[in-house]
Amino acid sequence: MPRLVCSVAVAAQAALVPVAAVAVPAVPTAPATPTAPTAPATPAVPTASAVPTASAAPGPPPSGQRSVAALLTELKTLYRQAGRATETYNALEERLRKQRAEVDRLDTALARARRALERSRAEAGRLARQQYQNSTTDLSSYLRLLMARNPQQALDEGHVIGQLARERAEAVDRLTADEKRAAALARDARRAYATQLALARRQQQARDDIRRRLHDVERLLASLSAEQLAALAAFEKSGIATAQRTFLASGVLSGLRPPSRRGEQAVRYAVRQLGKPYQWGAEGPQAYDCSGLTSQAWSRAGVSIPRTSQEQWARLRRVPLSELRPGDLVVYFPEATHVALYLGDGMVVHAPRPGARVKVSPIAANPVLGAVRPDPGGAPLPRYVPPRLPPGALDGPDAGLYAAEAPETSAR
């Protein structure tokens, strides 16, 4: 299976920012409003539903006849389609994880209910045998009272007999309740297991979708010459540099703010992951996809956040870009299909795309949707020293629309 197919595409769908298409983002007029301004825009890219993949496109011209801009647009489209498929996969993985836990809980409860039912049946059987034996040898309690030499003793025996009758009635009630509970739990367990199987099938379909789309990327890359790949690399580098200069010159970022204590812990964890490979669906410690890196960084800081970039964008507190501090999450693309951890000074750490590694990039390497803060109540540190970046932290593609060389192949 090609290596691209074995890596995640969430960060990979990150679009390039061509030089001519950079727009200056507006600074928010109300800094307290928890919404983020729009970052530099990239040329409009058709959605997955509107643009056929490389394999389905009706007779595209050979790669040698297409401009660098056209190749970038096609790669951008393919990677973003793969990114959306990866987010679908990650969301299904989260649901499947919770569903498995629910199935396990119901199985445990059902096992307990069945043990209780067996005990109730055994008790009911014992009392039934006892009642049968008493009914064959004993006189009625009224006759025993009349014939007894000691009426008080007879009354005491009658009390015991009445208590046994109540115990038999209670045992029957427990048996009935246990049978109903066991039957209800068995139905719930069957439904939960059926849901688990359906989620697993959908997850498999999402995985196959990712692989198909990344295979389209691989086919396109394999059709490019070394000169075309070099031109793509140069175009990306120039476009991102220009986008970053424009972004910073707009004044949307207003200086370095210290992180919270937990934000600092998340930053330092993410920096320690530099150089580890991107792999779709991975949450570490050997490899990550984009949201796997951010969720694990904050988890190690003691804050549980959603697993996917889309859920992180939807459920975490939004903050204006003018109020960014290290540890905040920068979310990219209108579909929120990529996410990075803000380092400060206009830089982020993220897992860019299939075939790449965790690295530091300019914040404007991809079109910014906005920012969220996992710990909105966290007080800023009185003093903050940013972590020292290791050599090569900025090496490699930032937007990740292509490989610098023909993709390798490996089994997964």
UniProtKB/TrEMBL annotation:
<dbReference type="Pfam" id="PF00877">
    <property type="entry name" value="NLPC_P60"/>
</dbReference>
<keyword id="KW-0645">Protease</keyword>
<feature type="region of interest" description="Disordered">
    <location>
        <begin position="31"/>
        <end position="66"/>
    </location>
</feature>
<feature type="domain" description="NlpC/P60">
    <location>
        <begin position="260"/>
        <end position="381"/>
    </location>
</feature>
<keyword id="KW-0175">Coiled coil</keyword>
<feature type="coiled-coil region">
    <location>
        <begin position="75"/>
        <end position="130"/>
    </location>
</feature>
<dbReference type="InterPro" id="IPR038765">
    <property type="entry name" value="Papain-like_cys_pep_sf"/>
</dbReference>
<feature type="compositionally biased region" description="Pro residues">
    <location>
        <begin position="377"/>
        <end position="390"/>
    </location>
</feature>
<keyword id="KW-0788">Thiol protease</keyword>
<keyword id="KW-0378">Hydrolase</keyword>
<feature type="coiled-coil region">
    <location>
        <begin position="200"/>
        <end position="227"/>
    </location>
</feature>
<feature type="region of interest" description="Disordered">
    <location>
        <begin position="374"/>
        <end position="412"/>
    </location>
</feature>
<feature type="compositionally biased region" description="Low complexity">
    <location>
        <begin position="31"/>
        <end position="57"/>
    </location>
</feature>
<feature type="signal peptide">
    <location>
        <begin position="1"/>
        <end position="23"/>
    </location>
</feature>
<protein>
    <submittedName>
        <fullName>NlpC/P60 family protein</fullName>
    </submittedName>
</protein>
<comment type="similarity">
    <text>Belongs to the peptidase C40 family.</text>
</comment>
<dbReference type="InterPro" id="IPR000064">
    <property type="entry name" value="NLP_P60_dom"/>
</dbReference>
<dbReference type="InterPro" id="IPR051794">
    <property type="entry name" value="PG_Endopeptidase_C40"/>
</dbReference>
<keyword id="KW-0732">Signal</keyword>
